[in-house]
Each structure stands twice: as C-alpha cells, then as structure tokens.
Backbone:
C-alpha cells in the first residue's frame, strides 16, 4: 500500500510562477520528510528536507510547508524556472526503519519559458 | 571517481534469463538500497542492506535476489526475468541511521523481451 500519497502527477507552470506539490501520509511514526529532485536520465537527488517539529523550511526558492495535524506537507517552488523542470518525489522516514524511505508517486513538473 | 555507480546502464534480456545489476559505492556507506521506478508508482524499494551480510526485503522483493559480501557492492539479481520486471532500477546508499540522505546512482534501464 502507498503510505505517502503525492499530487498532482504532473504540473505545468509558466516561468516566474509558483509550483506547488502536495503530499499526505497516515503513519504518525514518520519523523523526517525529504523531497528529491530527478532530472531525465539521472538518479534522484536530495533537494530539501524537514522534520515534523518545524512548520516551514526555506532554501532559496524552495520551501517545504508542514502541517502535522493534517499529516500533509508540500513543496513550493517560487519564481519557477525552466531549469526546475524535473520529477519531484516526496518521501518519509519511519523512525525505527534506519535510513529507509517511503516515496510518493512523483510529480513531473514542466516550467514553460 | 568517488560516488555510486551502476552497471550496466542499459540492458535488454529475454524472458526467463538471469540477469545481474551491479552497484558500487566508494563512501563506505553502511546502508544500500535497490529501487525500481515505474510510471505512476514512483520509487519502490526492492531490497535494502544495513551492512555487509545483512539484507532485508522491501516493498516489492518477489523475483529478485541480493547479496552483500562487501560493504561497497550490492548486486541485484533477477533469477528468471519477466516482462513485468522491465523498469529503471536505481541503487542508493546512505551513511547511517543518523545520516538519512540517500545518494542515488545513475540507474539501469532494463528491458525484458
């Protein structure tokens, strides 16, 4: 069963716009929520991550918003650029699982010039 | 070069054949993972290893075998390949339970005819 649900599956945004990708989870034992970015033909790479004791984390144009009570977290990409076009995966780690991550289904983002 | 490598990058095989995908990392990371990536399913964990000689099943282990005799290598074997195993396979590694970031290899695109 998919423990992390991600939406939308695909997203098209104009250059300069805001891209928003959402994830939801059920397992309250998750204690670490990373986002990975994957360019075509490459492996995923860590983009940004958050722990549930923080409601927001910002790194440059990328922001994670975390709502613990709703068990939801989202990635916001401000001033989206064509170079941001990639597949984005949210993920979650269960505290007893070591380094294991459960990934969402992925969102293919296209930023048009 | 340091990092995580996978070989081959592309492989075409026939149904019923055995095929082995190789993964090598130079960081001496404790944890290693095998994922398959399919459209609509994101990254699904096949097997993982917490250390040499310690392996465990992930979400979709059926039809796959792993071994880890050395810390740096984590080969994945399809004992009798099926068309449903056509996918892109990613290997990843992580330093420890306290260092959650997973570093991914470039992937192997496997086609089973």
Residues:
């Amino acid at each position: 069963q998919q423990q992390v649900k991600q939406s939308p599956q695909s997203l098209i945004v104009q250059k300069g716009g805001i891209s928003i990708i959402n994830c939801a989870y059920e397992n309250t034992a998750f204690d670490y929520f990373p986002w990975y970015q994957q360019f075509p033909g490459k492996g995923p790479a860590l983009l940004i991550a958050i722990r549930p004791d923080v409601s927001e984390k910002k790194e440059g144009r990328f922001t994670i918003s975390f709502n613990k009570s709703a068990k939801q977290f989202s990635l916001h990409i401000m001033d989206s650029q064509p170079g941001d076009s990639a597949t984005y995966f949210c993920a979650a780690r269960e505290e007893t699982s070591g380094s294991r991550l459960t990934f969402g289904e992925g969102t293919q983002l296209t930023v048009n010039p | 070069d340091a990092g995580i490598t996978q070989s081959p990058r592309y492989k075409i095989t026939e149904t019923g054949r055995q095929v082995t995908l190789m993964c090598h990392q130079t960081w001496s990371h404790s944890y290693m993972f095998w994922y398959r990536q399919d459209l609509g399913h994101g990254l699904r964990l096949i097997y993982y290893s917490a250390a040499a000689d310690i392996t465990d099943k992930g979400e979709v282990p059926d039809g796959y075998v792993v071994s880890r005799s050395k810390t740096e290598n984590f080969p994945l074997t399809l004992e009798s390949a099926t068309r449903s195993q056509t996918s892109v396979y990613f290997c990843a590694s992580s330093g420890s339970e306290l260092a959650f970031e997973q570093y991914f290899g470039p992937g192997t695109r496997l086609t089973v005819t």
